[in-house]
Amino acid sequence: MVSSPPHSNSHSFPPRVLLIALDGLGRSPVTYSAHTPFLSSLLSNGISFPSARAVFPTDSAPNWGSVLHGVLPEKHGLSNGDVERGKEFDENSMYPSLFKILVRRDEKKINMRKKNEKYGNTIVLDNCERGNKGKLTRNASKFITKPFICADNMSLNSRHPVCDEPIKYASFVAWAPLNTGIIERSIPGVFYSPKSESLCTRIRLHLKHHTLKSPSYDTYVLQRVLSFLSSPDSKDIELLLVHFVDVDEQGHNYGFGSEKYLKQLRILDGHVRALFDELEKERWLEKTTVVITTDHGGTGRSHGENSENEMGSFVVVCGRGVQSENLRSREDEKMSTEEVRNMDCAAIVLTALGVDVPDWFDARVPKGIFE
Ligand SMILES: [Zn+2]
């Protein structure tokens, strides 16, 4: 009776997740679906939770913190003020980010390998030099904001030996504090934000944002991530985070739901479509689970409180390993949407990667997502 699953070929590849983080959308793909044809089509065709909720307070750092650490804000303790001032996330926190959870798993494997070395098996770390940037193409070297440090006799809890390891983690974000304050600084990988651009570009972006009130951070993020995806450096990526922020900026500048906000929403929809087109071109889609969510909505020109507009969020899961919509049972549907929080993406990401959801997580996987 059972035919082969739709993406059976993809299972010969290691699992991979793309987490798309859309700042300040609330439930826009539902409320303003005319402005988000692509996102709305994902919402109606993939596994989606259009009435998911944010966590409180409805600010970016607490919510992206929960999405990336899988626990409520009172546990991870992240606030906009701290991360924007440059405070780094505690490397020894009881509530590590998804990246850190994966790196710790890698370190365990490497320790096993080192043990094997004692018994005469091959070692991968013997030709390393501290500071080696690894086998990056010039293209990727540009994006590096955290060095690839080859850690020969390293303290394994703060460095990851990567000189002969492929790049597995990457994060392209429009809001730099995600990379510098919410994700631990020790994570090896490719980390980009527009702050990595030349001084000239940064001045132009600052001017557009503050003076002309026409932010264009997202355009840079999109260009950079597209070029990364088409480069060989992305081939072994296990977790890629892509974050866009200009819709939120226009919400603050002109009002959430204002004409300018909706215009930016349409532009963002095009960015997400362009990202999917590239995934398709590079044959990533069939090998990748894509998870999309937003941190919060907004009301007037702000957010942070618990109104319906601010607490509104949504979650979409599609691609590899995801159960096709018509196989989901009514039972799954029933318990889905209202109870789902954007934070649950953390548990969804780990499950898609075949990693157990840690017992300290508040995030959980809504029923009926995976095959
Ligand atoms: Zn935000």
TrEMBL record:
Lineage summary: Eukaryota, Fungi, Fungi incertae sedis, Mucoromycota, Glomeromycotina
Alphabetized InterPro entries for the sequence: Alkaline_phosphatase_core_sf (IPR017850), Phosphodiest/P_Trfase (IPR002591)
Species annotation: Paraglomus brasilianum
UniProt name for this protein: 550_t:CDS:1
GO MF annotation: an example: hydrolase activity
Top-level taxonomic group: Eukaryota
PANTHER family linked to this entry: BIS(5'-ADENOSYL)-TRIPHOSPHATASE, ECTONUCLEOTIDE PYROPHOSPHATASE/PHOSPHODIESTERASE
